[in-house]
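Appendix B, example 12.
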Amino acid sequence: MTELSEGIEAFNQGNYELSYTILLPFAENGNPYAQVHIGYFYLKGLHVEINQQKAEYWLSKAEASGNSDIEKMIGLIDKELEIATFAELNRGFG
């Protein structure tokens, strides 16, 4: 099985199609790091069409984890975080 960190690294490199493909199964299985990324894909229209409902769905699932890192990431997203900044935040993950 592909590792979560591979999906995040693909995101950081701008390979959104590969990142989405890797992260979606993790998100569906309840991983909050994957969920916040999938939410961001829908929020910004990266490899998928912008869909506010799907973005909110995935971000709320991630936030429900109670993980302080996830809450921090969502807080930044709420402040209209730019893609490059989000990728930089990921650099410490994994």
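The helical segments are 4-12, 16-28, 32-44, 52-63, 68-78, 83-90. The chain is about 70% helix and 0% strand.
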